Automatic annotation (TrEMBL):
Signal peptide feature range: 1-26
Keywords, sorted A to Z: Coiled coil, Signal
Transmembrane stretches, start-end: none
UniProt source species: Listeria booriae
Domain Pesticidal crystal protein Cry1Aa: 241-302, 374-433, 502-563, 576-634
Xref: InterPro entries: Big_15, Pest_crys_Cry1Aa_dom-IV
UniProt keyword annotation of NAD present: no
The Bacterial Ig domain, residue ranges: 647-722, 727-806, 813-893
Protein name: Bacterial Ig domain-containing protein
Coiled-coil ranges per UniProt: 475-506, 531-583
Length: 894
């Protein structure tokens, strides 16, 4: 629907210009003022959905049904394949029966690591899989805690660590946080945290991996847990704003709200964008989008009004017969309502076509009159109710003043121009002051709270600009807003000071207690001075409730200090009595020295009874240590047998047992192989053995034998020498060879001898794992008995090895017949024995070959040798080594 205003011909008080600046004459189509849009709220800043983690803690096959428990991170968790949960503890499940890592029965994200086993690192991993929608936003809220207790025996390099995160199922980690705490620090680390993420798959893993390093078996305790955990879907305000902004921009050419609307933009498209703008909850962002959307409304309104001036709505055709100046003025009002030149110019061009046609008909204002009317309309539109002596409209922006200034510059009448310029100046002063005051507040909302950045300097600067404003009502309004900003700033400064006082007092009171727990016990270092200092800080607090809370905590600390003071005096007296008794056990009262000859078991027992009354753990340990030393010296004096031991070298792949001897009261042994301890073996009558064939594999293995007394204390440790099995390889040796040669792999071998038929010969050359021994004059027969003996530098026999002697092979054979005639193809005949081939010499030329059959006959091919009746022929028979066994001269038959 197109709205028209009834106006005088020479005064263009356009409803459009007023509408864009918050005027009240008319609102075209469905244009909303910024104030109206701000009144609409259909969503919150952050909309959260229901809990997505199924927290059912029931078990299936001794495993949590919904939570996977394993030892390390996995991106494909499966509850059914996780650790089996069992054990006898009423509160904790052991992981596969292990006692050094346990999970709380009532919380799968809570782990307990008691130091009951020596291991370089242990860990626990808990995961739960949730259904998610790709691209949607979620929040994982959790609180966590890390703590240690009884840590005096914990390794100084130990660490308790935790990783909490979100991972794509079957893919990469999305986000995670890590925390750690020194394992020997007896304290608690606790806090809350949040992980925001966008889902990248339809299933997402929520996980916690915690571990402890350098664990020993000393009994320290370590805890890591998520004390609370929750995942919900969220609708982030930024996503809503983006969707609305895209919808608004798509109404305009180039998808830019400063341009003209698209030819396809209609009321339905604008209203669809309007619904999205309604959902934006941030008032500042919603106001900006509404202003941009209003431009689309107004451009559409002006476009329809201009089209209505022409026949068939064709702006390139003729104006209607009913089109008059009033209708054109109304359309001009709507164009003036469009605040951006890119949007206004095409509309103005189309309207000018109608104006020109109407002027040609003799109906229309002069150019000067139109300029004056246009300028006055734009200046009046800057003020409420078009009153140029009043206050500016609430939606006024600098661009509106700039556009009005351009119109005023076009006025040629000096009197009218001066009047309009003066009003324009007032509008500028009011806008400057208004913007300065708004700038003090969040989102420019003077009814809200001041910005964090607002200071006294920025308030004073705003006061200067307000002082220039001449309109009393506007000035009073702005001064009231500045007063509110000043009030909030003063309150904020006072609150900051009070907060600082409260924090200082709270921290001082917490520092009086162990682990800062005001419900627990005070620290050993807390004394009356510390309490008095905290009292002074609490006295400075003005918040009565907070002061009462801290005073109650101080009263508890005072109560404990008083009790500690009384107990300290009694404890001191007990300690002095015990120290005197213990010192009396030692010569010259020196507990670091030796006990007196007169010290008896009764005296030591009496000192032990006195020590039981001591409550100071450190002092008690110190005194017990001195008594233990006295007891040890007394026991050693009466029964001392020195512990010694010797272990035999272990030969790899040869020895089955580690063995050795000992003296002293040894009842058990253990073996350390590369840092891993094994218990077992036998100990009896000064000898020990330990099966080690399956434990020692390499020459570089570090092996230590530990000798234990009856109290399981290691009395002596001995390093074992690991050797490879000695191997000697003899090269083939035949009778009449000059040297026996071969190789050996034991670097301890430095000497050798050979024993031939009972006679020993020393000598030989041994270097770089090889040996050579001259034996030509010592071994005469393959049946000689020869032993090679190898020694170390101490003449200790390392290895004996029999020499293998190869005897020469004796062969024999005869050519019993051999005949050939002129023209025969072969020499034929018979043989015996080991003859394997032949050599035939014919007239001085020798040929090799021949064929022998199993029945002892042979033939030698000679058809190509041209034998004559007088040829000289000799045949020689050889064994397989080409040794000559028989030689026969052959007479050629005729």
């Amino acid at each position: 629907m197109i709205f028209k205003t009834q106006i005088a011909k020479k005064v263009l008080a356009t409803s459009a210009a007023l509408a864009i600046l918050g005027g009240s004459i008319a609102t075209p189509i469905n244009v909303l003022s910024v104030e109206a849009a701000e009144a609409i709220q259909t969503a919150t800043v952050l909309t959260t959905g229901s809990e997505l983690i199924n927290k059912d803690l029931s078990l299936v096959n001794n495993r949590f049904k919904n939570f996977t428990i394993t030892g390390e991170y996995t991106n494909t968790p499966n509850a059914a394949s996780g650790f089996e949960l069992n054990g006898t503890d009423s509160n904790w499940y052991g992981l596969n029966g292990q006692t050094h890592r346990m999970v709380l029965k009532s919380n799968p994200f809570s782990y307990y690591f008691p130091e009951t086993w020596a291991i370089s690192e242990t860990a626990g991993f808990t995961a739960v899989t949730i259904d998610t929608e790709v691209g949607k936003s979620y929040v994982f809220d959790y609180s966590y805690s890390l703590s240690n207790s009884n840590v005096k025996t914990a390794d100084s390099n130990s660490k308790l660590n935790m990783e909490v995160g979100v991972s794509q199922y079957g893919g990469d980690k999305i986000k995670y946080n890590t925390y750690s705490l020194a394992g020997n620090q007896e304290t608690t680390l606790t806090d809350k945290a949040q992980i925001e993420f966008k889902a990248t798959s339809t299933k997402t893993i929520i996980y916690m991996r915690t571990g402890y390093t350098h664990m020993n078996s000393s009994g320290a305790q370590h805890f890591a847990s998520l004390d609370s955990y929750s995942v919900t879907q969220v609708n982030i305000e930024a996503d809503i704003q983006k969707e609305a902004s895209v919808a608004v921009n798509q109404l305009f050419n180039g998808n830019s709200s400063g341009a003209a609307i698209k030819a396809t933009t209609d009321l339905a498209a604008i209203q669809a964008a309007q619904l999205l703008v309604y959902k934006v909850t941030d008032s500042y962002e919603r106001s900006k989008l509404q202003v941009e959307l209003n431009q689309a409304y107004r451009q559409l309104d002006a476009r329809l009004a201009i089209a209505n001036l022409f026949e068939n709505g064709n702006v390139n055709g003729k104006i209607k017969a009913s089109t008059n100046q009033e209708a054109i003025n109304a359309a001009q009002d709507l164009i003036n309502n469009v605040s951006t030149n890119p949007g206004r110019l095409p509309l103005q061009a189309d309207l000018n076509k109608a104006k020109n046609q109407l002027t040609d008909l003799g109906d229309g204002p002069s150019v000067e009159e139109e300029a004056e009317m246009n300028a006055r309309t734009l200046v009046q539109a800057l003020f409420k109710n078009n009153d140029m002596t009043g206050t500016i409209v609430t939606t006024l922006a600098q661009r509106h003043i700039d556009e009005a200034q351009k119109a005023v510059n076009s006025v040629t009448n000096p009197t009218i121009k001066a009047e309009l310029q003066a009003s324009l100046k007032k509008a500028q002063e009011q806008l400057n002051a208004t913007n300065a005051v708004k700038g003090l507040f969040n989102n420019d909302n003077v009814a809200g709270t001041i910005k964090t950045a607002t200071t006294q300097v920025s308030i004073n600067d705003a006061k200067v600009l307000v002082g220039v404003v001449t309109n009393t009502a506007k000035k009073t309004e702005l001064e009231g807003q500045i007063a509110e900003a000043q009030k909030q700033l003063d309150a904020k400064l006072a609150q900051v000071e009070e907060q600082a006082r409260q924090e200082a007092a709270t921290n001082a009171v917490k520092e009086l207690f162990n682990s800062n727990d005001v419900t627990g016990t005070i620290k050993d270092s807390t004394n009356q001075d510390a309490i008095n200092n905290a009292k002074e800080l609490v006295a400075a607090i003005t918040d009565t409730a907070k002061k009462a809370e801290l005073e109650a905590q101080l009263a508890e600390a005072q109560k404990q200090v008083d009790a500690k003071t009384a107990e300290a005096a009694a404890e001191k007296a007990r300690q002095e009595a015990v120290e005197k008794a213990i010192e009396g056990l030692f010569n010259n009262n020196d507990v670091n020295g030796t006990i007196k000859d007169s010290t008896t078991q009764d005296a030591i027992d009496q000192a032990k009874e006195l020590v039981t009354t001591i409550t100071d753990a450190d002092k008690k340990a110190e005194l017990e240590k001195a008594i233990t030393e006295a007891q040890k010296q007394l026991t050693d004096k009466e029964t001392k047998v020195e512990v010694t031991g010797k272990v035999n070298p272990f030969i790899l792949h040869q020895d089955r047992y580690l063995s050795g001897t000992y003296t002293g009261d040894i009842t058990a042994i253990s073996v350390d192989v590369n840092g891993k301890r094994y218990y077992g073996g036998t100990v009896n009558d000064g000898e020990f053995s330990f099966y080690a064939l399956d434990k020692i594999a390499n020459p570089g293995d570090v092996v230590i034998i530990n000798l234990h007394s009856a109290d399981k204390v290691i009395q002596k440790s001995i390093t074992v020498q690991i050797k490879e099995a000695t191997k000697v390889t003899q090269a083939a040796y035949n009778v009449k060879d000059s040297n026996i040669t071969g190789t050996f792999n034991n670097p301890d071998i430095t000497k050798m001898n050979i024993v031939v038929n009972g006679t020993t010969y020393w000598g030989g050359t041994l270097t770089n794992g090889t040996f050579k021994f001259y034996a030509l004059d010592k071994i005469t027969s393959a049946t000689d008995e020869v032993t090679m003996n190898f020694y170390n530098a101490k003449n200790e026999l390392i290895l004996s090895k029999n020499l293998t002697i190869t005897a020469p092979v004796v062969t024999s054979g005869e050519i019993t017949s051999a005949t050939v005639a002129v023209g025969d193809k072969n020499i034929v005949g018979t043989i015996t024995g080991d003859i394997k081939s032949f050599g035939v010499t014919i007239d001085g030329v020798t040929y090799n070959g021949g064929t022998i059959t199993s029945d002892g006959t042979f033939k030698f091919y000679v058809a190509d040798k041209k034998i004559k009746a007088d040829s000289s022929i000799t045949i020689v028979g050889y064994d397989k080594s080409k040794n000559t066994l028989s030689e026969v001269n052959i007479v050629v038959s005729k």
